[in-house]
Design brief:
CATH architecture of the largest domain: 3-Layer(aba) Sandwich
Radius of gyration: 19 Å
Order of helices and strands: EHHHHHEHEHEHEEH
Bound molecules: magnesium ion
Number of domains: 2
Oligomer: single chain
Strand content: 5-15%
CATH topology of the largest domain: Rossmann fold
Helix content: 40-55%
Number of helices: 9
Structural class: alpha/beta
Length: 232
């Protein structure tokens, strides 16, 4: 029996683009408010608010939308025209319907691995939004289980890979976020595979683990099957 039995995949920026839509939204938001506020101060305030709000509202578009409104109200000094809030809400709503196109190699990779391994999605974000994207992606049929979690910690990975697999030592986590997908998964005892994405959210950055025996970095998801074969 192979050592590795279960493979978890992150969703956003691992299976399809996501962060680039956030970056576009942020640009539209700053352009919208530029006539009323100091844009540099607003951008800094948004970053602070977004970071602080994760512990209150979690990850995802709803949290980001609330942070955009909160940062705007905190920066404008009290004379922000009220239609601006509707416009900010609209920017947030549009983030909830962005297209979901799997990256090249995703279908082939999942198809090649699903007969030999249990495949899971492990993602953060808003429940409804993540379910919509998974349905729209056309990838649901490849996965044994979908786990939408409020945070990605070693304990969460340990629980998921014990419940749906043969424990973290026989599991691998694949994702674009060092901080969320790779470092805590390795800490739990899994293999951690980093596939860097074109756009990286500041809260996804982390340094490489000190013990690299269970760490690999790939340029494309198409290389995952080869790594799985190598690990055995
Ligand atoms: Mg991701």
């Amino acid at each position: 029996m192979s050592t590795l039995t279960t493979i978890g995949f992150d969703a956003d920026d691992t299976l399809w683009d996501h962060e680039k839509y956030f970056v576009d939204s942020k640009t539209r938001y700053l352009d919208l408010l530029a006539p009323y506020v100091d844009v540099i101060a607003l951008e800094a305030r948004l970053h602070e608010t977004e970071t602080a709000n994760v512990s209150l509202y979690g990850f995802g578009v709803k949290s980001f939308t609330l942070s955009m409104i909160e940062a705007a109200l905190a920066t404008d000094g009290g004379d922000l025209p009220s239609p601006c809030v509707s416009d900010i809400l609209q920017i947030g709503r549009e983030l909830l319907v962005h297209p979901v196109d799997p990256y090249p190699g995703v279908h082939d990779t999942l198809d090649a691995l699903r007969s030999t391994h249990k495949l899971l999605v492990v993602t953060r974000g808003d429940l409804v939004d993540q379910e919509r994207k998974l349905a729209a992606s056309g990838l649901l049929g490849y996965f044994h289980e979908i786990e939408i979690v409020s945070d990605k910690t070693p304990q969460v990975y340990s629980r998921i890979f014990t419940r749906h697999g043969d424990g973290p030592r026989r599991a691998m986590m694949v994702g674009n976020s060092m901080r969320a997908d790779v470092v805590p998964a390795i800490e739990a005892g899994c293999f951690g595979i980093h596939i860097p994405s074109d756009y990286v959210w500041s809260m996804d950055i982390d340094s490489d683990p000190q013990d690299i025996s269970r760490f690999r970095r790939l340029t494309s998801i198409a290389d995952v099957a080869a790594i799985v074969a190598e690990i055995g």
